[in-house]
Amino acid sequence: MDITTIVSQLKAQRTQIDGAIATLEGLASNGASSNGTAKSATVQTRKRGHLSAAGRKRISEMMKKRWAERRKKAAKK
Questions:
Q1: 8 Å CB contact between 40 and 32
Q2: How far is it, in rounded angstroms, from Cα 21 to Cα 15?
Q3: d(Cα 44, Cα 48) in Å, to the nearest integer?
Q4: Under a CB-based contact definition with an 8 Å cutoff, are residues 30 and 40 in contact?
Q5: Does residue 70 surpass a pLDDT of 90?
Q6: How far apart are CA 9 and CA 5, in angstroms?
Q7: Of 9, 6, 27, whose CA–CA distance to 17 is shortest?
Q8: Per-residue pLDDT reduced to its tens digit, 1-55
Q9: Which comes out higher in pLDDT, residue 44 or 60?
């Protein structure tokens, strides 16, 4: 194997390692703990949808119907 090829491969690995180190240092500076339980300050919260009153009522009625059918099946056994 040619020495210049080996040197270029080592430089490529060094670049990858430097990038990984920079990423890890960035995580550590955001307050992340070593076990990964702390959340980063840049994490976005998930937006939740909103139901109208009519939508809530419709879902409530559907669930009541479903539960009633389950009670009927359980009583038959």
A1: yes
A2: 10
A3: 12
A4: yes
A5: yes
A6: 6
A7: 9
A8: 789 889 989 999 999 999 888 888 888 777 655 555 555 556 677 777 888 999 9
A9: 60
How far, in Å, CA of 1 to CA of 4, rounded?
9
C-alpha–C-alpha distance, residues 41 and 27, integer Å: 10
Question: Which position has the token pair 């959340």?
Answer: 39
Residue 31 near residue 40 (C-beta atoms within 8 A): yes
CA distance 18 to 50: 45
In the chain, where does DSSP find H-type helix? 3-29, 53-76
Q: Which amino acid belongs to residue 9?
A: Q
Q: How many angstroms separate the CA atoms of 5 and 25, rounded?
A: 30
pTM: 0.37
